[in-house]
Amino acid sequence: MKTEAALIKCDSYDRNKVFSAVKKAVDSLGGVQKIIRPQSRVLVKPNLLMAVDPASGVVTHPEVVRSVIRLLKEQGCQVFVGDGPSVWGGHIENVQDVYKQTGILAVAEEEGAELVDFDKRRWRENYPLTRWLDHCEHLVNVPKFKTHGLTLLTGAVKNLFGLVSGTYKTEIHKKFDKTDDFAKVLVDIYQDARPGLTIIDGILSMEGEGPGTSGKTRRTNFIMAGSDCVALDSLLAVLMGIGPMDVPTNRIARDRGLGVTDIAEIKILGEELKDVFSGDFLLPQTSIRKRIPQPIINLLKRFIKYYPSVDRIRCIKCSACIKACPSKVISMQKKGIVFDYSGCIACFCCQEVCPAAAITLKKSIFTKIVGL
Ligand code: SF4
Ligand code: SF4
Known about the structure:
About 30% of the residues lie in helices and about 25% in strands.
């Protein structure tokens, strides 16, 4: 039997329209009761990367989260909502600010869901995941569809990285500084957490230099849902104009037999992919490198390089990048932010957390010459 994924058009964040699209998507999969046991405890995990307005396209929109809570409440479920944002536990952002500014606090209060933070953790081999996974019987994953400089896209699998407790996310970036090694950790987390249901906010998405404020918002007008996160990410890849195997987490998950990457093996319920949105989708600058076969990359990697660079006019000197950098190679000097490129591992965490879109990528001379 083919893996099923629902794809439903939705052209605004109007409350009724979003609920109708989310319900239609879940109903086409057999209804929420087929996937989530009525009366159970459910952890809902949106993408709440940072404390920004949802109109930025950076975070899962609160109306999508509201719809998910309502569907679960209709089944008598006890609903917990939480995420571990990128810079968390530091001096700048804390999770309560993130919940407030993203609109999730208001939605949780209005819908009777409990907001939780991920400070209590249980260690796995390489990382600690939130204890709320142990407390809840189901996980419902509610990602935002965005590009990502390191993993090409952030969708169903990558969203689960937020389950890692506190600042350990930074440690993981440091320890697993090669894209494929980092992607293996993401797939480990997916294998461990295994959300029963994933509902993707693809109404206002992000292209270009996502996933933070450096990306460009793009109206893509859809809700996607399913239980196979690898299949959902494969569909997102096709919508971006790349192949499912270009996404490192897909390659690793497929090798482990964790999901379907062959589009022909996915039964799409609702709209056809070609009818969802049209026009080229801007990929991150690093995307070409990610799509070159690894043996060729190994030969050229000393020469193909991307570095973060700061736009000092846009920079508001908040120091978020300094706190987020796993290699501790960013400093604040008289002239502003300075990078020590000798220790940069090109993880782009600095760009991800910058609230002012002040960090752009610059290419090495060889990378420019070969047009990558
Ligand atoms: S400078 Fe930016 S890209 Fe380089 S290691 Fe630090 S956070 Fe990562
Ligand atoms: S580059 Fe961005 S994150 Fe870093 S200090 Fe400036 S505004 Fe803050």
